[in-house]
Amino acid sequence: GENVEQHPSTLSVQEGDSAVIKCTYSDSASNYFPWYKQELGKGPQLIIDIRSNVGEKKDQRIAVTLNKTAKHFSLHITETQPEDSAVYFCAANKGTNAGKSTFGDGTTLTVKP
Amino acid sequence: SAVISQKPSRDICQRGTSLTIQCQVDSQVTMMFWYRQQPGQSLTLIATANQGSEATYESGFVIDKFPISRPNLTFSTLTVSNMSPEDSSIYLCSGQGAQASNTEAFFGQGTRLTVV
Q: Which of A2, B43, B56, B93 registers the highest number of CB atoms within 10 A of its CB?
């Protein structure tokens, strides 16, 4: 089955700096890659996603890049703010069932004011 | 995106008892899923809740332990049966295929279960 590895497990940055989280996947059939933000006591919230037919997608301060050949994708957060502090999960999905995803282990991001 | 409400948000239960978690979506969704998230860890898929038929379970999860119902396109329940302390976890409901987005998957706030 699919295996998703996520690094780093923890990340601490100063407010205003950029943060990068990287994931690799094993199944070349995966074609949908969502990223979720989970705040304490809440369920994961989708923040951005990318499909295998594009290499990059951006939404304001958040961007995701995908390298299908190397089977890795990354989340980039620019101009970080304290409210960006949360656990971030990457995931990989092979079909139209976007909810049936394999998740990475998560990255705890701390943005220091 | 659609909104999922889960009940209860948390519970403390005695070992050997069962707890049923409810998941209500504010609009019809094609797919519903149940995940388990142990403290500080990632999400593991338990099963796909199929409307009007038996759920599809992932490896390591069985119907006798985690019976699931999905009577319609907006509601599902997960029961954690004959609980032991190892079942202490966060249980999350997920929906996908709402009218606004065919593929975006969204989650409820989770049910934090502690078994004593």
A: B93
